[in-house]
Every structure is written in C-alpha cells, then in structure tokens.
Amino acid sequence: MAKNQGELTAVLVGKKKEQRRLERKAAAKNGVWQNIVLGSLIPAILILIWELLSRVGFFPSYQLPAPTVILEKIVEMARDGSLFGHIGITTYRVFVGFILGTIAAVVLGALVGFYQKVEQLFDPMIQAFRSIPSLAWVPLFILWMGIGEPSKITMIAVGVFFPVYLNIVSGIFSVDRKLIEVGKMYGLNSFQLVRRIILPASLPSFLVGMRSGLGLGWMFVVAAELMGASQGLGFLLVFGQNMAQPETIIASIILFAIIGKLSDWVLKKIELRSLHWQDRVVK
Amino acid sequence: MSLALRNVSRTFNNVTAVQNINLDIKPGEIVGLLGTSGCGKSTLLRAISGLDNEYDGEIEINGQVTKEIHDTTGFIFQEPRLLPWLNVLDNVTFGLNGKRNDKEHRAIEYLESVGLIGKEKLYPRELSGGMAQRVAIARALVTSPEILLLDEPFSALDAFTKMQLQDLLLDIWKIYQSTIVLVTHDIDEALFLCDRVVVLRGQPGEVATEITIKEERPRNRGSEHLARIKSEILDCLDLSGTKS
Ligand SMILES: Nc1ncnc2c1ncn2[C@@H]1O[C@H](COP(=O)(O)OP(=O)(O)O)[C@@H](O)[C@H]1O
Ligand SMILES: [Mg+2]
Asked: Which positions fall inside the ABC transporter domain (chain B) (predicted)?
C-alpha cells in the first residue's frame, strides 16, 4: 500500500518535472536567441562598415579586401575542394596531437598524483620543462623528426600535455580527504578508491585541463604549419603572404576561429554532460 | 561485537587531545560519549573506527587488538559526506555489494525509513542539510553494520526529524543488535538512547564519570528519572559554574 503510494507520487512528480523541464527548455531557447542577436549586433555593424569602406576604396584591396571578397575566396576553395583538404589535415593534426598529449598527461599525472615517490622523481623535472616556452622545441623536433607529420604532431602533443597534466595533478591533490574516508569506511582498496572516488572527484579539473589543452593545440598547429607544410590552414597563411593574397590569410584566420570554437563547444558539451551534478552556476 | 579501549591517548603535534581512556563495551550495548566541544570525542571515535591509527594504547574489537578499519563497522559523520556525483539512491548503495537490483531494493527500504521516498534521483546539491544527513544515515544503516559509530549525527537536524531518527536508530538496533557508540553533546539524546553514558571532560579530555541508565525502552523523553540523571551530568560537567 505504502509502496504503491510511493510509486504514484513518483509518477506524479515525474510528470510535473517533465513539464517544468520543457518550460525551462523553452525559456532557455528564447534566452539563447536573444543572446545570439545581441552578441552579433556589433560585429554585424562593424562588418558592414568594413564592407562599405572597402567598396569606396578607403582600405586598399591588396591590404584589406572586403568581407565579400573573403567570403568569395572561401566559397571558391570549397568549390574546387581544396578547402576540405586544408581543414581536414589541420584538424587531424590537432586531434592526434591532442589525444597523444592527453594520454601522456593522464598516465604521468595519475602516477604523480597517486605515488609520492613518482612525484618526487618526476614533478620537479616536469615543472622545469614547463618553464620552457613550448615553441622553443620546434627546431629540435624538426631536426630530429624532419618536417613531416611526426614533428608537427609531437609539437602539438607537447603543447597539450602541460595544461592537462597540471590540472590532473592538482585535481587529484585536491580531492576532499573526507570523501576518501567514506570510501575507506566501506573497505575500498586503493584501486577502488581511485576508481570510485578520486577519479570522479578530479574529473572537473581534468576537463578544465582538456579545454585549455585543446586551445593550446590550435595555437601550436599554426606554429607547426607555419614552419613548413604543403597543406593545412597554417600553410594557407604562409601561402597567402607569399602570393600577396590577404583574402587567403583572412579566410584562413576565420576558418581557424570557426573550427577552434566548434571543437571547444564539443568539449564543453561533454563537460556539461558529465558534470551535471556540480553545484555551480550553469554557464 | 564487543569493543574495548585500553589506555587510549591521542596527541597531535605535542598537544594531547584525549588521554588514558579505558572503556569496555559489550556486544549490543549503546554507549554515549558526552562532553563539551573540543574535549576529544570525535578524536576518540576516529581511533575506534581505524580511520586514525596514530593513537597510543590499544583498541580491541571482539577480543582482537587491531588498528585496521573493520569491515563491519559503520560510521555516520558529523557532516553528510555524500558523493556529489552520485544521486541519492547510488549514494545509499555505495557500500553494498551484489546485484544492482538487490542493492537498490535494500536502499529503497532504508530510504523509506528515513522518509526520503521519491527523492532517489536527486543529487546532493539538490538536498537540504537535513535531507542530506538522512541519506548519510541510510547509507550507513543499509549495510547493517555490527559496530555503528555516530559522531553527533543528528545535531544539524530540526527537533522533529531528530526524534524521528532517534526512534529509527532504536528500531534498527532492535533488529540487528549492533554495538553503538554515539558521540553527542546533547544530554537528552544520550539519555534517551544509551545504556551507558561516558562523560568526558577537560583538555586533554578524560573520563569524568560513567552513568548506567537502567530505564526500560521505549523511554519517556520527559521522565523524572532521566531528568535527575541529567542534572547529575550537568553538575559533573560543571556547566552551572560557567553559567552564573
Ligand atoms: N587532525 C587534528 N590535528 C590537530 N589537532 C586536532 C586534530 N583533530 C582534533 N584536534 C584537536 O583535538 C581536540 C579535540 O578535538 P575533537 O575530537 O574534534 O573534539 P570534539 O569532537 O569533542 O568536539 C581539539 O582541541 C582539536 O583542536
Ligand atoms: Mg566533534
């Protein structure tokens, strides 16, 4: 009897919740549209002014072509198919470098976080390497691995490694000791403590690290492709400079912005999904 | 399970928190540790639990000296300590082993006893302090521990919930006959629940007195007999002196 009642209330509560969720969703959608309109107002005006000034010849077209010219350039590259090659290879480099850098950071970060001996052995060295600006490695990597994919991907991985590593280590170190005690009271062994308490508790910090790592990955792919590449968005930058085509350069910059933002958006979605339990203001 | 403390002391960086505690607890007994704040009650309970093993002296569980955490010991902390990434149901099943379905059935049974049916899917951030503490209580009781250690478990709750949960604790104790050590600063709570009250006093804390309460359960919270014991304890704690 009591159980049935419980179920009934559960169902009712469920319905109400569903309704409230829908309402909230609708409200959120309105808010999103409003944000988009407000946020794109000023850029739209600026682009319009830019277009006008270019048309009347205020900006010389060999230095700053009109937005429509840049758009035409992108459309043209899309038509002859070269655009997707450039985007594809650049994204591939960032993706592989990001994965490799993250894996290395997770392995080392976890070891350093869990074993004091490993921390004493490795952390000072990693901290020292960190103070080297990662771009300074470029000539060495090119010397070692040539100008092909390995050196580019390694560079990106190095760039991704540090933020991910630092965040994992600090995430593990800042897990609430009180929660670990709860696990100990239930007789969890070290491995179970890691899996059931330390990992979930340090996940937020890990995701923060991944997002800033990805940002650095995009920065490093530019550097890597500037150094020497025959394809890629970074190559388009150099190519545009050599051919005196500012529209190619700006098109490449815009494409970088778009796919950089897209990849960050994917991570942010993952973050929101896996951290829905967090008590914080939803961004 | 029986529990015995022999000359237990705990010193933190040269400051002694509790000193020379001797205590014998019979299986199924409910013992209250009562004292003003800072006299080392929590420290003592953590030593018993095995969470802290840097104390001096010996602690015996069922006649065996051990510093390990005993797997049939349950601990209800002063704060709920729920895992924020698990919902209420998963928090309660956290310490259980076995098939998911069985675990959840058991958990729901206990959530019902603490009055949280219908809240299974909520996350800790969505709970009030009292609700969170009730989840913590369900989480500790659901494993039917043979030794149950409670550190001021009800101190953050409103008076009604508090009484309700005290009754619940006694109900569960009747079924499982767990040995219970209850840390509290609430004299009425100690008198209502315990077979014996150990009064700690001073800094470092030492046993000031032990009072056995023979009154049959269920006890009447307002009984004259309990009131007399209460004033005895108050005298012992010398609170009247600080009040005037
Ligand atoms: N981890 C610790 N490090 C240093 N001092 C502590 C620690 N835990 C407790 N103490 C000290 O021991 C004394 C008793 O604390 P506690 O057992 O928490 O008191 P109670 O629970 O009776 O209020 C206090 O003076 C406190 O400052
Ligand atoms: Mg305390």
From this structure: 3-227
